[in-house]
Amino acid sequence: MGSNSALYDPCPPLPNVQEMVRSDPFQVPERYIRDEKDIANDAGLCSQLSSEVPIIDFSLLSNGNKEELHKLDQACEEWGFFQMVNHGVATEITKGLKDSALKFFELPLEEKNQIAMPPNDIQGYGHSHVDQVLDWSDKLVLVVYPQQHRKLDVWPPSPFKEAIETYSSELGRIGEELLRSVSLIMGMEKDALLLLHQELVQPMSVAYYPPCFMPDKVMGLSPHSDKGTLGVLMQEEDVPGLQIKHKEKWVPIKPLPNAFVVNVGDIIEIWSNGKYKSIEHRVVTNKSKARISYSTFYIPHRNVDIEPLDQMVLETPGSLPLYKKVTYGDYLKQTQKMKKEGKAHVTEVAKIAN
Ligand code: OGA
Ligand code: NI
To answer: Mean pLDDT in the chain?
Structure first.
């Protein structure tokens, strides 16, 4: 996602999924139904693997602990995902956000639609992805930082608004700190990646995944990789749903109390010349319980040239860049036009064919 609305082609209005389920829980329109095999592709789903997703201690990272930095390096290389504990965000803040989000989603549709996403924008309350087959979810998307990018007319009412503000300010601190650690493991000065962003843009997406009476026929969120540099997700502690592709299998990320889920986005993959992986992930639904998730993304300014960093190219066998140079704005524009198919967009837009 990006900071400039002109990047986004108009898209047709879509039904509100939460409302559909409320009016008839036993109806799933054709447009949401997927090929059984697309979902059952998780036949080999190994739930015991979930507990192997690396756990990284944020406070150790920010103290420059060598061992933890090494764990971070391994996690980004082998998994592209990790659970982050000791992030220091107070429970009142996370709970404040969760409580107010729940109240917001429980409002009547007309009230939520006061901040509806305009047809040519991605900010505001509306649908999830627009694709051939639709996702079983609704979401609220806002660009939170830099402050001058805020479109306050699509911000939710109080106290949700303030809760987003407070949480996002904490997440701003965490994002900067994480980028410092990633700079270090890439062999650079602490602030190198922050500087490379020119401007650290921080969008947030609060997604509502209603239950579905036939969860194996729909998908909460289609397989995709994130187009920014890093992502930090807070998920519900008692409702799983997120799955990541690891060694050709879908591995569920079990919610860990008070942990955030961090992932490498496409831009870190490109900067690292493929050493760190932007991993495909998706969200599955369940029969009985709605799930709300809170995704924070960090993305560079749209004029920034994205290309593999010299020292990472030298680390690559053959010392060749595997991705071509593209401005971030062009990257967004080109990938947005493509049909969403996992991370095919990275290969097509940025990868150098050999
Ligand atoms: C996303 C995402 C996961 C989730 O918004 O890009 O992957 O659990 N969300 O909602
Ligand atoms: Ni994602």
So the answer is: 91
